[in-house]
Task: structure prediction
Amino acid sequence: MNAFEKEIRAIIEAEGPMPVSRYMALCLSDPRHGYYATRDPLGAAGDFTTAPEISQMFGELIGLWCAEVWRMMGGPARFRLVELGPGRGTLMKDLLRAAKVVPNFLKAAGIHLIETSPVLAGRQKETLASSGAKISWHKNVDTLPEGPLIAVANEFVDALPIDQFVKTKDGWRERRIGIAGGKLAFGLHPVPVPGIDETLPPRLRKAFEDSVLERRDLGPIREIAGRVAKSGGAMLIVDYGHRRTTLAHTLQAVRAHEFADPLELPGEADLTSLVDFEALAAAVKKCGAKTYGPIAQGVFLRRLGIEPRAQRLKQNKDAKTRADIDAALTRLIGEGPRQMGELFKAFAFTHPKLSAPPAFDS
Ligand code: SAH
Result:
């Protein structure tokens, strides 16, 4: 047992079994023991790797996506360029470099990064120091200044805490984390939660017993969607998940590139769950924004021209570099189970008057 588990047990002993969302928030963001709060988990030597860390092409194409959205907005003289959960700052670095080709885009952009982890915020400062851009950091989206904005988030939504509910004979009951057999263990709250079926898509209202429903706190995305609907702009979200709400337990822990038990060694593994894009789109629509997708990441990147971009990068390079570029391309757009092209999806929302953003059909 690590020191953090002792603290979590003390909370459970004092207050009773805790909602999954509280456990997830503690494990990821507790200032002293939280996973992101205490380390940089990315890259080959870390616990997992992400699209911007695999290839510069990812951030570059997203940079051109943002610049085109800005042009579609009428090229406002000032807007906020926002990234949620920027990790090492690699996506933003590649985005800013690629967007240089669009006159005045960078001059108009005030850059705002939303990051809870002081370790990763430090890393972002280092990565972006040479970009020359003026950047502000925020712990959450509430302190973003008003005005039109273009926001991006890669592998951010999967880390937002979820709650879980299990269908039983007497209705949906919340899954909680307590102590059983001397260990942290999942259990069910004794009292069913009323009204859940009514909020589900009709096809899921007669779920089988033991079905698991996951519900995510989409607060930060709602806040951005409300601002986009009010002041103009768009957001791009790339993450892994299901197109439609699926009744399944998808909470997962990853440590050193391997799946781990989410209740073991809290704070030492990345804890995420698959994004429910149907629920995400419904929440965004309620805030008044227009939604697009999700489409497969492979489709999204191909439509933005990743293949010719890879060809360009390979020109005049040695065989090893060319092979690395091809491997990165396959990883990003391939459709196999170990590749990201189909598992990951791109989803966008805009001000209702904007036309369809690049790569999304209207
Ligand atoms: N986008 C990056 C990093 C993904 S990891 C990439 O693709 O490489 C998730 C990121 O979100 C980390 O930077 C983490 O610190 C941040 N994060 C997680 N939960 C957050 C929250 N509630 N608010 C702000 N940042 C959060």
Summary: Residues 28, 36, 42, 50, 52-53, 85-87, 91, 114-117, 120, 154-156, 159 surround S-adenosyl-L-homocysteine (CB under 6 Å). The longest helix spans residues 56-72.
